[in-house]
Amino acid sequence: MGNLRAGLLGIGSMGRHHARVLREIDGVDLVAIADPGGDKFSVARDLEVLPDVESLIAAGIDMAMVAVPTAFHEDAALKLAAAGVHTMVEKPISATSEEGERMVKAFADAGLVGAVGHVERYNPALQEMRRRIEAGELGEVYQIATRRQGPFPARIADVGVIKDLGAHDFDLTAWVAQSEYASISAQTAHRSGREFEDMVVATGTLANGVMVNHTINWLSPMKERLTIVTGERGAFVADTSTGDLTFFANGVIQTEWEAVTAFRGVSEGNITRFAFAKREPLRVEHENFRDAVLGKSADIVTMEQGLATLRVCELAIESAKSGQTVTL
User: Which of its termini does the chain have fewer beta carbons within 10 Å around, N or C?
Assistant: First the structure.
């Protein structure tokens, strides 16, 4: 069997990175690129820049990466599904859950692999954290807190910070804890004069009882990408901007300070920053999508999972508008 023929729709700020990785991974040939806006980052090389998804399909592709703005995901995905093309779309899966439902159904009915590009799942720090939690190193998980904040990205124009950045944290939190959201309560702000929210604080619970908290915004000059998981044996801190994972262990030294011994909490213990292999998340994501298309064992974010994350985003927006906690 020859290499899989891959097509890429969208070669903007994110699409250019997909082009690079699709050219690098084994078993895949990037044979067609389409973008109605042209090739402003000069990534096409010897490939013609096609005008639309129809021309991409006509190039005879086995799999496609869709990296156009969210508003165009459904149209492109449904056309690719009808043409029998395995497809991964960038997150969020779609602009609305109704669109996402149609996408899920189209790929399921066609027996095709449909995936969503939640690339943070493949961050080495989070991969290592989840592995260690599964191995029982943290014991029972109590709480997951994320902080994702930084300056406003001018390239984002069709969604707010919840569907853009929040989608990352909602997805990775459910994935790390291996449990779906049960409730969500959110507050938002509009400070930059745009249609969509640019700041959110959200709290909630997962179905397994884990408490969650998210601080997310486009209004900070300080870029921060942290996931903190606290459990009965200590806390893991994953910095996904650097790929580092640190473990703060509960202390085991008995204190002789009588006033403190009455408090049945934990004390500071050893701090360990783990050393492990760190591979580029986008490359790992594409390798897993390739393997799924080939029918091999693979860890992809399915369209069903992407849709579940989008629903959490929508309910967070609903909660902020109503001022009420929303139960899923």
Answer: N
pLDDT digits (tens, 9 = 90+) for 260-299: 555 556 788 999 999 999 999 999 999 999 999 999 999 9
Task: Kindly list the strands in the beta sheet with 234-239, ordered across the sheet, starting from the edge strand earlier in the chain.
Answer: 268-273, 244-250, 234-239, 224-231, 141-149, 211-217, 199-206, 181-189, 326-327
Query: Pairing mode, if any, of strands 244-250 and 234-239?
Result: antiparallel
Instruction: Determine the Cα–Cα distance for residues 79 and 135; give it in Å rounded to an integer.
Output: 42
Q: Work out the number of other CB atoms within 10 angstroms of the CB of residue 273.
A: 10
Residues in contact with 193: Cβ distance below 8 Å, sequence separation at least 6, in sequence order = none
Q: Which residues contact 225 (CB under 8 A, 6 or more apart)?
A: 147, 148, 239, 240, 241
Query: 3-state class of 86 per DSSP?
Result: strand
Q: Which two tokens stand for residue 33?
A: 């690129």
Q: What distance in Å separates the CA atoms of residue 141 and residue 236, rounded to the nearest whole number?
A: 10
| DSSP 8-state assignment for residue 283 | H
HSE toward the beta carbon, residue 189, CA cutoff 13 A: 10
173 within 8 A of 212, measured Cβ to Cβ = yes
Contacts of 291 (CB under 8 A, 6+ apart): 297, 298
> Which stretches in the chain have pLDDT values below 50?
none
Nearest to 286 by CA among 298, 303, 304: 298
* Structure token digits, residue 87: 């497809």
Spatial contact of 212 and 204, defined as CB atoms under 8 Å apart? yes
CA 309, CA 12: separation in Å to the nearest integer?
24
